[in-house]
Design goal:
The chain is an alpha+beta fold. Helix content is about 15%, strand content about 45%. The protein starts with 10 loop residues before the first strand and ends with a helix. This is 161_t:CDS:1.
């Protein structure tokens, strides 16, 4: 999956792990992959911040 492509309804047991500079980090189970970490980017980030997030 790429950015903005993980269907929310395919996540189970979503649990907040913490907050970073770009948004909230969650642990969840993705039905097709198992346990994953998910970074939810704040929608108000500018283009430069989005590029930094992708490179992270």
């Amino acid at each position: 999956y790429g950015l903005n492509e993980i269907p929310y309804n395919s996540l189970k047991n979503k649990r907040k792990l913490g907050c970073g500079g770009f948004g909230i980090v969650y642990q969840a189970e993705l039905i097709s992959l198992g346990h994953v970490a998910i970074k939810e980017v704040e929608s108000e980030t500018d283009e430069k911040a989005q590029k930094l997030f992708i490179n992270e």
